[in-house]
Each structure stands twice: as structure tokens, then as C-alpha cells.
Amino acid sequence: MKASNLHEFWASPDNTRLTPKQFSFRLPTHIAAKIAAACEMYPTKNRTQIVSDLLTFAMEEFEKNLPEALGPLTDNQSDYKYNAEREGIEYEPVYHLGGARGQFRELANKHFTDIEQELGIESPDPLYHEIHITKSELEERRKK
User: Fold this and answer.
1) Are residues 80 and 134 in the same domain?
2) What are the tens digits of pLDDT across the range 86-131?
3) Which one of 24, 124, 134, 136 counts the least CB within 10 Å of its CB?
4) 77 and 54 in one domain?
5) What does the alpha-carbon distance between residue 132 and residue 97 come to, in Å, rounded to a whole number?
6) pTM for this one?
7) Do 37 and 10 have their domain in common?
8) What are the angstrom distances between the C-alpha of 120 and each of 5, 17, 20, 113, 129?
């Protein structure tokens, strides 16, 4: 979700599932005022929905900007990807995504599984699927 899409998102029906536990925290006054303004502008959305949507956007931006690195080689050490564009290198080893982004995704999967199990889902699908990447793919991602 992008910030530019929040208006359209808030104007549509809500399909989110909530956690079984409530979170409570205090906000800086200027943020509380902005949330109150958004609630007044979009009266069909409650404060929980608006805060949840804003946090969704912020978390996506946060994750997108976390540094990436090569993690360990994939479990099958014979995994190689063909790369016709790299001169002199036809096949490259495949790694798990590492760095802060890889760590964040792994921890988010762990906590997501715990929360889903609290909701009664015994074997939930992961929030994130593993990313397998080569050194040249990582270099290309960094250029973007």
C-alpha cells in the first residue's frame, strides 16, 4: 500500500482480522491530533482501522528500506541459477536473503505464526516466503 492510496483504501470495505490481544500505547500529541483529524475526515473508519492502515504503510516502507545482504547458501548447495548476462559467469550459487531485511522477515514469520496459532490456526502459511538470491541479483537490487 502506498500513502497515495490511503484515501481509496479507507473508502473501501474493511476485511482485516484483528489480533486476539489489544495493544495500548501513548502517542506524541501532534500524531494524536493528526489521527483525530483523519478519523473526522473518514467517519466510516474507526480509529483502530486508521491506525492499522497507517502502520501497515509505515511497516512496508520500513521493510523496503532495510539493508539486504547474502545470507547462508540454500540448503541444497547444488542450487545454482543460470546467468547469461554476466561475462565469464554462467552459473551462480543461490543464497537465502540475509542482512537486516532477511532477519526482519524471519522474525515476522515467527511472530505471525504465534499470533495465528492464538487465533486457532494450527499450521498457518508464513507471512513471507523465503527469498533465494544470487550475488548479481543482490547487486542489481541495490542499484534500484
Assistant:
1) yes
2) 566 577 888 889 999 999 999 999 999 999 999 999 999 999 998 8
3) 24
4) no
5) 6
6) 0.75
7) yes
8) 32, 13, 10, 11, 21
